């Protein structure tokens, strides 16, 4: 190989990366071979390298390497080994690898041990492009161009970069300049007559089309929207399928779904953790979150899922029209007359009777309505003038008074007082002399005939029984007062000075008792029921079931067929005895115990008083027509009393003639409410 | 071989009671001779739902359908069309297997398409009925408009684009006729409530962010619904546009469409055609209008027949300058005053003399819908906007950032929530609580 060629070719191959090329070329300078086309001559060069082998060992390597580099085309330079295409393992056991051009043995090089070669490899940054040539027993370093060439080959492209596999076609024949046809033959006739077969085919098609054997594709229809509901005003046609039930609309979002809800909507971390413990069905589907500004709201991750769930609901859920009663709550209210039409009734406090030093437990109004008696737990009984509020008389009975009651006869002014275990009957010294005389006679007869009692005091009559006096209230129609006991009831005929013992057995504690206003019928109220006895026939007529836990008071309508029962749980029951033994109406009006209930004697009024310091006034009309139920209208709440150690109004009474209400409070006052 | 009957029924005696009235789903499938997915699809399209018989004679775990419902499906032409489609698909498969691609292509083009319009008419005999059940339809279409088209999830681009277009057309109508009543920004999206022909329609628009299609959702079912909802909304829109004398489908300015300002393009279209141009007079705006006029012309020809000559002359006269003439305005006022109710008038005049500008960070789409619906004029930062930020007549600028650098003294800077609160309260609220950075 000529050195010139070498020099020419070297820079052409690579200028940058070969370090040994120039050295090599200098080494090859002494060698002179002219042609590089023949392999024989090219092989002279390694021989030259071999010549210089003894002095420059490394040189030979580089020269070989140079060879490889230089021949980017293989045919230019032959390898220095001349063994040819024989299996190389033949030389495995030999000390040489082959022979050079002159027939000399080429010795195997000493191989570096593994560590050394590894270290050398590590140090050499160009190690990756070195290839071991087994045939020549040397390492070859690939140049950049060679690497590119390999890469191109790997990509199945032509190895040379400047090789164009698709060159533009250059037509060798110049068509445009040709004046004459290529062939001199005349045009054939068939080119001028219409084809017979084509005509036949056309006729065939035409016939097929006419017969309808061939159909054409219809032009595509545009199915855009059009005016579907043109005129649906007069649409009344009945579809014959089942009634369509529209799906219920989705719930509208609440505050909690806002992007910036109030703080109380946002669950704490603990709450969120507790959701994890719940069953999946119970877990809330939406957890409110807070974003300070609108730009920070992220995409909602469950949007698709919720839409899908709605879809499932729409097509999988059976739709049933729930019949919901759509009743206007206003229409359910009974038509009550307005309060204005029901006047008069007590509305405002008119007089306060002051004087008692402790809670006033009981009051009673004289039948004429001029006087009012009151008993207090300070141990006094007082008589007041109603219109002025003057205290007329005062007895010191020395014991807390439970109950006071006037004689219902207007000309016999006797007052019955129950205190502790005793019942006192007091002469009030009212009325003219004649009446006074009568009373005295009545009472003096008393004193003269101590029937079965041990003794009697100056102004009182006492039947002191073996039984305990536990009575609350004494009252009777016709000059007789009754005291009731524990479990047994005794009736005292004041005129006869006799005491009867009721022959009935009571179930439970008797709480209150009262008499029928016109007939000899006796009502006893126990805690849970009211029993009605006929005193003359001495038998039980009726038993009324109150349904209350603990009744506390009872009052009978002046007509005698209706009664009200107040209870400790604040309920008021109205019984219509002709109707049933169950309450006709139960009014839950007081939050605390009802202490007393009372009817007005002439006006259609009744009242209840309770420990919550209120007294309620109701309109309670009873019709003579049996078909008409009693009419009950709440009228007024009377306030004014104050509570003292949990007790409010202890007693209330109506004025016998006027629509006035007296109330006795635990705050030592008696009040008169007028219309 | 006669099957053993469980309960003896004398010959000639018919079934009675629930057993005669209801069939289970598998029985229905057998009767209709279709598979379950097709049955589901038909049920969705026809609005057939399961029933609850008083006595579940085949057990409580079964789904029951009414016999009449099944018969109703049985007579449905869609059933026949779907059978044809199946046959066609087989032919296509065969043609493809034989490498007869041309035939396959022709067959594919010729595949019969189910038509929904008859079903829609059947389900909603009156327009009001359709409006009353539009809630789910609108929510779904708006959701799909925000979905990414995914080959794997069978949501194709065309479907998404169509949904988007329909949603915008609907919004443009609502905004144009001032029918919007309430708006509520929630975490799930923005709820809107409009009142059209006495029907309160509520729908949910997802926030304009990329939605994720989760795997636990059966997209095919949703697409079945969409197959009904898409034409339904199209028909409804057609009817609504018809009612305000607009051509449907609207032809939009391609430039604005490319800028994804569809809604604005639509509102411009509506304005140009009805010629109730709210005075959007800006140098740039008029320029845009002029460029738009070219394609606006043919549309106008359609309406020509309906409008009187005088009116048309005025219209032609007005449009080049894009300014509402005095007379024109009078006509417009008179026409609109008598037709609208109190509520609409109130909504129309809420933001009447206000001019809004939206900053970059503000959710543009919803505000572009809400503000014009209440009579305001709105612009945004970006190309194709009717007026620029530097416009002195802007009264409110809507910003949603922590601090505003340069401030114009002539306008107020408020948060977007101010718009929604004002809209719901129907008064222009004081802006103190909605300042920047609050």
TrEMBL record, chain A:
<keyword id="KW-0853">WD repeat</keyword>
<dbReference type="InterPro" id="IPR036322">
    <property type="entry name" value="WD40_repeat_dom_sf"/>
</dbReference>
<comment type="similarity">
    <text>Belongs to the WD repeat BOP1/ERB1 family.</text>
</comment>
<dbReference type="GO" id="GO:0000466">
    <property type="term" value="P:maturation of 5.8S rRNA from tricistronic rRNA transcript (SSU-rRNA, 5.8S rRNA, LSU-rRNA)"/>
</dbReference>
<comment type="function">
    <text>Required for maturation of ribosomal RNAs and formation of the large ribosomal subunit.</text>
</comment>
<feature type="compositionally biased region" description="Basic and acidic residues">
    <location>
        <begin position="1"/>
        <end position="15"/>
    </location>
</feature>
<dbReference type="InterPro" id="IPR015943">
    <property type="entry name" value="WD40/YVTN_repeat-like_dom_sf"/>
</dbReference>
<dbReference type="InterPro" id="IPR012953">
    <property type="entry name" value="BOP1_N_dom"/>
</dbReference>
<keyword id="KW-0539">Nucleus</keyword>
<dbReference type="InterPro" id="IPR028598">
    <property type="entry name" value="BOP1/Erb1"/>
</dbReference>
<keyword id="KW-0677">Repeat</keyword>
<feature type="compositionally biased region" description="Acidic residues">
    <location>
        <begin position="42"/>
        <end position="54"/>
    </location>
</feature>
<protein>
    <recommendedName>
        <fullName>Ribosome biogenesis protein BOP1 homolog</fullName>
    </recommendedName>
</protein>
<feature type="domain" description="BOP1 N-terminal">
    <location>
        <begin position="91"/>
        <end position="346"/>
    </location>
</feature>
<dbReference type="Pfam" id="PF08145">
    <property type="entry name" value="BOP1NT"/>
</dbReference>
<feature type="compositionally biased region" description="Acidic residues">
    <location>
        <begin position="16"/>
        <end position="34"/>
    </location>
</feature>
<feature type="repeat" description="WD">
    <location>
        <begin position="353"/>
        <end position="394"/>
    </location>
</feature>
<dbReference type="GO" id="GO:0030687">
    <property type="term" value="C:preribosome, large subunit precursor"/>
</dbReference>
<dbReference type="GO" id="GO:0000463">
    <property type="term" value="P:maturation of LSU-rRNA from tricistronic rRNA transcript (SSU-rRNA, 5.8S rRNA, LSU-rRNA)"/>
</dbReference>
<dbReference type="InterPro" id="IPR001680">
    <property type="entry name" value="WD40_rpt"/>
</dbReference>
<dbReference type="GO" id="GO:0043021">
    <property type="term" value="F:ribonucleoprotein complex binding"/>
</dbReference>
<keyword id="KW-0690">Ribosome biogenesis</keyword>
UniProtKB/TrEMBL annotation, chain B:
<dbReference type="InterPro" id="IPR010613">
    <property type="entry name" value="PES"/>
</dbReference>
<feature type="coiled-coil region">
    <location>
        <begin position="78"/>
        <end position="107"/>
    </location>
</feature>
<feature type="region of interest" description="Disordered">
    <location>
        <begin position="285"/>
        <end position="304"/>
    </location>
</feature>
<dbReference type="InterPro" id="IPR036420">
    <property type="entry name" value="BRCT_dom_sf"/>
</dbReference>
<dbReference type="GO" id="GO:0003723">
    <property type="term" value="F:RNA binding"/>
</dbReference>
<keyword id="KW-0539">Nucleus</keyword>
<feature type="compositionally biased region" description="Basic and acidic residues">
    <location>
        <begin position="294"/>
        <end position="304"/>
    </location>
</feature>
<dbReference type="InterPro" id="IPR001357">
    <property type="entry name" value="BRCT_dom"/>
</dbReference>
<keyword id="KW-0175">Coiled coil</keyword>
<keyword id="KW-0690">Ribosome biogenesis</keyword>
<dbReference type="Pfam" id="PF06732">
    <property type="entry name" value="Pescadillo_N"/>
</dbReference>
<protein>
    <recommendedName>
        <fullName>BRCT domain-containing protein</fullName>
    </recommendedName>
</protein>
<keyword id="KW-0698">rRNA processing</keyword>
<dbReference type="GO" id="GO:0070545">
    <property type="term" value="C:PeBoW complex"/>
</dbReference>
<feature type="domain" description="BRCT">
    <location>
        <begin position="346"/>
        <end position="436"/>
    </location>
</feature>
<dbReference type="GO" id="GO:0000463">
    <property type="term" value="P:maturation of LSU-rRNA from tricistronic rRNA transcript (SSU-rRNA, 5.8S rRNA, LSU-rRNA)"/>
</dbReference>
């Amino acid at each position: 190989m000529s050195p010139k060629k070498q020099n020419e070719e070297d820079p052409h191959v690579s200028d940058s990366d070969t370090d040994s090329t120039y050295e090599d070329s200098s080494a090859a300078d002494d060698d002179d071979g002219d042609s590089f086309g023949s392999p024989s001559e090219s092989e002279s060069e390694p021989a030259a390298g071999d010549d210089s082998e003894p002095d420059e060992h490394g040189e030979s390597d580089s020269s070989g390497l140079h060879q490889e580099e230089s021949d980017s085309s293989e045919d230019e330079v032959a390898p220095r080994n001349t063994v040819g295409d024989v299996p190389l393992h033949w030389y495995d056991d030999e000390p040489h690898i082959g022979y050079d051009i002159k027939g000399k043995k080429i010795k195997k090089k000493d191989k570096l041990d593994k560590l050394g070669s590894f270290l050398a490899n590590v140090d050499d940054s160009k190690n990756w492009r070195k290839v071991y040539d087994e045939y020549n027993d040397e390492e070859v370093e690939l140049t950049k161009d060679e690497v590119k060439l390999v890469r191109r080959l790997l990509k199945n492209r032509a190895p040379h970069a400047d090789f164009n596999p698709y060159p533009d076609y250059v037509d060798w024949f110049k068509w445009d300049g040709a004046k004459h046809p290529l062939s001199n033959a005349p045009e054939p006739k068939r080119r001028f007559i219409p084809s017979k077969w084509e005509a036949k085919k056309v006729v065939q098609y035409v016939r097929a089309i006419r017969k309808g054997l061939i159909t054409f594709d219809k032009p595509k229809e545009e199915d855009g929207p059009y005016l579907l509901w043109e005129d649906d005003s007069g649409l009344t046609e009945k579809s014959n399928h089942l009634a369509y039930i529209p799906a219920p609309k989705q719930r509208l979002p609440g505050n909690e779904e806002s992007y910036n809800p109030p703080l109380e909507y946002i669950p704490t971390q603990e709450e969120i953790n507790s959701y994890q413990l719940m069953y999946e069905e119970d877990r809330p589907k939406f957890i409110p979150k807070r974003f300070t500004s609108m730009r920070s709201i992220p995409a909602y991750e469950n949007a698709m899922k919720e839409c899908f769930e709605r879809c499932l609901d729409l097509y999988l859920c059976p739709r049933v029209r729930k019949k919901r009663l759509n009743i206007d709550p206003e229409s359910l209210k009974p038509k009550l007359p307005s309060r204005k039409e029901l006047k008069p009734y007590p509305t405002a406090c008119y007089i306060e009777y002051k004087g008692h030093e402790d809670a006033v437990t009981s009051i009673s109004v004289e039948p004429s309505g001029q006087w009012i008696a009151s008993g207090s737990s300070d141990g006094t009984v007082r008589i007041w003038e109603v219109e002025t509020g003057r205290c007329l008389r005062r007895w010191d009975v020395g014991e807390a008074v439970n109950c006071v009651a006037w004689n219902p006869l207007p000309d016999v002014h006797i007052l019955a007082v129950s205190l502790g275990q005793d019942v006192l009957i007091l002469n009030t010294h009212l009325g003219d002399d004649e009446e006074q005389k009568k009373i005295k006679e009545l009472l003096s007869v008393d004193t003269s005939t101590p029937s079965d009692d041990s003794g009697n005091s100056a102004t009182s009559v006492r039947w002191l029984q073996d039984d305990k006096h536990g009575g609350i209230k004494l009252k009777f129609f016709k000059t007789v007062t009754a005291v009731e006991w524990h479990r047994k009831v005794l009736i005292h005929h004041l005129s006869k000075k006799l005491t009867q013992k009721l022959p009935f057995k009571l179930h439970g504690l008797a709480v209150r008792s009262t008499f029928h206003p016109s007939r000899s019928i006796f009502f006893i109220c126990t805690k849970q029921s009211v029993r009605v006895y006929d005193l003359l026939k001495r038998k039980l007529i009726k038993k009324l079931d109150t349904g209350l836990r603990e009744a506390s008071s009872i009052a009978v309508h002046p007509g005698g067929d209706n009664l009200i029962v107040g209870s400790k749980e604040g309920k008021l029951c109205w019984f219509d005895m002709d109707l049933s033994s169950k309450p006709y109406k139960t009014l839950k009006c007081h939050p605390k115990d009802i202490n007393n209930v009372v009817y007005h004697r002439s006006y259609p009024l009744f009242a209840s008083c309770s420990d919550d310091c209120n007294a309620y006034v109701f309109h309670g009309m009873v019709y003579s027509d049996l078909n008409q139920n009693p009419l009950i209208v709440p009228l007024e709440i009377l306030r004014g009393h104050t509570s003292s150690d949990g007790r409010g109004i202890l007693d209330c009474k109506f004025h016998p003639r006027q629509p006035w209400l007296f109330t006795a409070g635990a705050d030592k006052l008696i009040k008169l409410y007028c219309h | 071989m006669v099957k053993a009957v469980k309960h003896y029924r004398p010959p000639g005696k018919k079934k009675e009671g629930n057993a005669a009235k209801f069939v289970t789903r598998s029985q229905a499938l057998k009767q209709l001779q279709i598979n379950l997915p097709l049955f589901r699809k038909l049920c969705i399209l026809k609005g057939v739902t399961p029933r609850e018989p008083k006595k579940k004679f085949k057990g409580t775990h079964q789904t029951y359908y009414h016999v009449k419902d099944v018969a109703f499906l049985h007579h449905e032409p869609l059933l026949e069309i779907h059978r044809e489609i199946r046959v066609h698909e087989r032919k296509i498969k065969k043609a493809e297997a034989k490498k007869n691609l041309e035939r396959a292509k022709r067959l594919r083009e010729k595949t019969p398409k189910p038509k929904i319009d008859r079903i829609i008419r059947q389900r909603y005999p009156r327009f009001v009925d359709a409006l009353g059940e539009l809630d789910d339809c609108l929510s779904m279409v708006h959701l799909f408009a925000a979905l990414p088209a995914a080959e794997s999830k069978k949501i194709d681009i065309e479907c998404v684009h169509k949904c988007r277009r329909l949603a915008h057309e609907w919004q443009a109508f609502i905004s144009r006729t001032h029918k919007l009543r309430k708006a509520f920004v929630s975490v799930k999206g923005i709820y809107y409530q409009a009142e059209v022909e006495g029907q309160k329609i509520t729908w949910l628009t997802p926030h304009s962010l990329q939605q994720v299609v989760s795997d636990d959702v059966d997209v095919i079912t949703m697409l079945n619904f969409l197959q009904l909802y898409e034409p339904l909304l199209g028909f409804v829109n057609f009817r609504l546009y018809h009612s305000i004398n607009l051509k449907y489908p609207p032809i939009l300015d391609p430039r604005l469409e490319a800028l994804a300002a569809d809604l604005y393009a639509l509102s411009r279209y509506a304005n140009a055609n009805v010629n109730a141009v709210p005075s959007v007079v800006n140098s740039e705006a008029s320029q845009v209008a002029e460029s738009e006029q070219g394609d606006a012309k043919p549309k106008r020809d359609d309406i020509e027949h309906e409008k009187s000559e005088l009116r048309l002359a005025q219209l032609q006269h007005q449009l080049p300058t894009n300014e509402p003439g005095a007379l024109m305005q009078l006509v417009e006022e008179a026409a609109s005053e008598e037709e609208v109710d109190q509520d609409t008038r109130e909504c129309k005049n809420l933001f009447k003399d206000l001019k809004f500008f939206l900053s970059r960070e503000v959710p543009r789409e919803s505000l572009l819908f809400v503000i014009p619906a209440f009579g305001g004029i709105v612009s945004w930062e970006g190309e194709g906007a009717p007026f620029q930020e530097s416009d002195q007549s802007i009264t409110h600028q809507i910003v949603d950032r922590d601090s505003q650098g340069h401030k114009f003294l002539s306008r107020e800077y408020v948060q977007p929530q101010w718009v929604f609160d004002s809209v719901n309260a129907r008064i222009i609220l004081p802006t103190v609580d909605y300042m920047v950075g609050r």
